[in-house]
Write a structure and sequence with these properties.
By secondary structure, the protein is of the alpha+beta class. Helices cover about 20% and strands about 20% of the residues. The structure holds FE2/S2 (inorganic) cluster. Belongs to the 2Fe2S plant-type ferredoxin family.
């Protein structure tokens, strides 16, 4: 005679039975909701700026685009480029170097939309 099954011994299945399908559905939903990486258009190239890069400068370097720089920290202005289209943010706060109207510093900014820039 076997022992009666207690509530703790029962296999618990997630709601909707066949938990595997439910999990797969969630995974597909998460992929569909994942925002696409902003694209940087420069010198005829379109470069996806994925989260692995901490700045536009490093994203450009990752795509073998030659960019001027010096301090890499928002102080000198050497990485200044013209922003033709799109929006960027400065995650560490506004840089100390002068940034004119329609310009950005690539070393300390990230795109929040697709952008088009022009190098010097
Ligand atoms: S490299 Fe100096 S401000 Fe960007």
């Amino acid at each position: 005679m076997s022992k009666p099954e207690t509530p703790c011994q029962r296999e618990v299945k997630p709601p909707g039975a066949g938990g595997q399908q439910h999990g797969e559905k969630r995974q597909v939903q998460a992929q569909a909701e994942k925002p696409k990486a902003p694209v940087i258009s420069v010198e005829g190239k379109n470069i996806a700026c994925t989260g692995q890069y901490p700045s536009i400068l490093e994203c450009l370097e990752g795509a073998d685009v030659e960019v001027h720089y010096h301090c890499r920290d928002g102080f000198c202005g050497a990485c200044r480029v013209i922003l033709h289209r799109g929006q960027v943010i400065y995650p560490q706060g506004e840089p100390l170097a002068f940034v004119g109207e329609g310009e950005i510093l690539t070393c300390c900014s990230l795109p929040v939309t697709d952008i088009q820039i022009e190098l010097d």
